[in-house]
Design brief:
The complex is a heterodimer of chains A (172) and B (105). Chain A is built from ten helices and no strands. With 172 residues, chain A is mainly alpha-helical. Chain A has two domains: 2-73, Rna Polymerase Sigma Factor, Chain: A; 77-169, Winged helix-like DNA-binding domain superfamily/Winged helix DNA-binding domain (Arc Repressor Mutant, subunit A), CATH 1.10.10.10. The longest helix of chain A is centred in the middle third of the chain and has 20 residues, at 50-69. By secondary structure, chain B is mainly α. Chain B contains four helices and no strands. Residues 2-7 and 81-105 of chain B have low confidence and may be disordered. Classes of the chains: A mainly alpha (172), B mainly alpha (105).
Chain lengths: 172, 105
């Protein structure tokens, strides 16, 4: 049963682990650890959504691994200062100022810049963007994997994207 | 489908971009998009960001990872059923790097 449930999602599992850990070596460790967890916990699989079940294990394993091995590398929004949290959660990186269409058009991005900006995002924003854009999961599955309400997924996606745009446009 | 987010342009714009708005909300958002230059510019920027993120090189599963996982699982499965003499040595993992991976999942 494990072969049918977890292994088909290996590519997505590795991709998620790669973005959460920041490098391929650690991602391999996480995926192997997650595979063993899934193998041992296969009886808890409810035969509903193998993809979400597998990626949930990978995500949780990645955070456990990071907290154990590289705790300083994990920045959640809860770890930010009050001012930073307020900016991200309520105002967005651009604050409340209304931009002109000309200013908006200034957005530009190259692959290296996007990669760097995405890596800079706090984990909660980065993971929803990776799950949505790289793994192309819908909101419901992202909510299940990250264990938050759909409204929180929407908020984090929106704020994460605004922050990315701000980082790429130099308007932090 | 998400229908109750009309009070927030950013959330609605993101949900539309992600195909998560219900049909009626999507049609209404498209009408607003046609009439609001600023909203259209922000939406186009969102699309540009999406294209940029999705065009990033995708990490491929490293060669040998599946085999290493299968090896681990075989060992673990053997341990679970209590078969003796099935331990695996670090040198059998096939990767020239000290592993921090633990059986204590």
């Amino acid at each position: 049963m494990f072969d049918e449930v977890f292994l088909p999602h290996m590519a997505e599992a590795y991709r998620l682990a790669r973005w959460l850990t920041g490098n391929s070596y650690d991602a391999e460790d996480v995926v192997q650890d997650a595979a063993l967890r899934a193998f041992r916990g296969i009886k808890s699989f409810g035969a509903v959504n193998a993809r979400a079940w597998s990626l949930t294990i990978v995500r949780n394993t990645a955070y456990s691994w990071l907290m154990k091995n590289r705790p300083k590398a994990v920045v959640f929004t809860d770890d930010l200062s009050v001012a930073e949290q307020q900016q991200l959660e309520h105002e967005g990186p651009q604050g409340t100022r209304i931009e002109t269409p000309e200013e908006i058009a200034l957005f530009k991005a190259d692959a290296e810049g996007v990669q760097h900006a995405l890596a800079q995002l706090p984990a909660h924003f980065r993971e929803v963007i990776v799950l949505r854009e790289m793994n192309q999961l819908n909101y419901r599955d992202i909510a299940e994997i990250t264990n938050v309400p759909i409204g929180t997924v929407m908020s984090r996606l929106s704020r994460g994207r605004q922050l990315l745009i701000a980082l790429l446009g130099g308007r932090k | 489908m998400i229908a109750s987010i009309r009070d927030n342009d950013e959330l609605q714009m993101n949900a539309y971009c992600d195909g998560e708005l219900d049909p009626a909300s999507a049609i209404e958002f498209e009408r607003r998009l046609a009439d609001d230059e600023s909203l259209k510019a922000r939406y186009n920027r969102l699309l540009s960001l999406r294209r940029a993120v999705r065009s990033l090189p995708q990490s491929e599963v490293p060669a040998g990872l599946r085999a290493r996982i299968n090896s681990k699982l075989d060992t673990d499965g053997s341990a679970l059923v209590g078969r003796p003499g099935q331990s695996v040595r670090p040198s059998q993992m096939g990767r020239p790097r000290q592993r921090r991976w633990s059986f204590q999942a």
